[in-house]
Amino acid sequence: MNNRHKVFVSYHHDNDQEYRELFEGLFSDIHDIMVSKSVQIGDIASNLKTETIRQKIRDEYLRDSTVTVVLIGPETWKRKHVDWEIGASIRQTEYSPRSGLLGILLQTYPRPHGEPNNYFPNTIPPRLHDNIECDFAKIYNWVDDPNLVQSWIHEAFDRRKTISPDNSYPSFVNNRSGERW
Question: Model pTM?
Fold first, then answer.
């Protein structure tokens, strides 16, 4: 399989930076199965207005990507920027085609009762959850296998044209807190 896609990685910048770097290092640099289109820390000034930040993410990073991968740690669901990135990536606009979507549970994600293949629906980003429910997105456990990750990315790429996403969840205004949404 030689399906290399432009991938936007959405994640909790403070908690999961090392996983984003590992993900991109493994799958973009070492195995060359994807082209990273992610926002790096410091790329977008945090003092900008919300709508300006959203527009910059959409126009400067997501516009050229074809699949969004959400790296899910214990607090990823709380982040407004993750919500905005998912929402912008699955929106079809005149200048930005819809991206495929998938989630990857990190090794730090707290599994229910120690079950490796389960997750609590209310502890992943709500917009991602809605899209898993409508079959637009899938969720997987972290692996280092480039063939498997490449197949996940390509399947997400294909689904974006055959299944309509659910973008109805109200956009986050602020970061969230608590144990679940």
Answer: 0.91
